[in-house]
Structures are given as structure tokens and as C-alpha cells.
Design goal:
single chain, 6 helices, elongated
Length: 101
């Protein structure tokens, strides 16, 4: 999802790479699209409490050969990128334009 939104070729190692913050931005956008303000509760039910948890998952996938990283990629790239309550609740706005048509 994040690669597609950024216009990156997922099959190309160099041009398909996305950073931790870019991946987390994709997670944020997709979660808001699917779950809206319920995102923090959905994530919590999955055991995900912060952006750090996504970093741990990504690096577990890397260790198991399911994802790749560059020499510059670090687990800490995922730490405290955004606060769930802030981006999923306080900054959330409901688009009602479609309802008024």
C-alpha cells in the first residue's frame, strides 16, 4: 500500500524501498480509511500500542527473510513517529460531503 501511494516499484530493490516513517504513514492512512477513530482500539486488540510495535514486526520479518532493509534502516526509525491518540482521534475529521449529496 505505502509503495503504491508513493509511486514506488515494489519489485525493484532500490526504487521500491520505503523508510520506516514512510511505511508508518501508509499504515496511518490505511488504518484511518478502514477503521477511522476506532483504529487505536483495533490496534490494541492486536497487541499494537505504538509505532514502535510496527518496527518490531518489520524487523522480525527482516530477520526471517520476508522483508529487506538497507544499511541505513534502523529499528529506531519506527520509534515514537506519531502518537496513536493524536493522529487517529484528535486529528481525525469525518468527511460528510458524500452524505449531503
Amino acid at each position: 500500500h505505502a509503495q503504491e501511494k508513493l509511486g514506488r516499484d515494489h519489485s525493484a530493490e532500490e526504487t521500491g524501498h520505503i523508510s520506516g516513517p514512510e511505511l508508518l504513514d501508509g499504515v496511518r492512512r490505511l488504518a484511518l480509511q478502514h477503521f477511522g477513530m476506532l483504529t487505536p482500539m483495533v490496534f490494541k486488540s492486536w497487541g499494537i500500542n505504538s509505532t514502535d510495535d510496527f518496527g518490531y514486526m518489520v524487523f522480525e520479518l527482516i530477520e526471517n527473510g520476508k522483508m529487506r532493509k538497507t544499511d541505513e534502516d534502523q529499528l529506531t526509525d519506527f520509534f515514537a513517529v506519531y502518537d496513536f491518540q493524536d493522529v487517529f482521534c484528535q486529528q481525525y475529521s469525518l468527511d460528510t460531503r458524500e452524505l449531503l449529496k
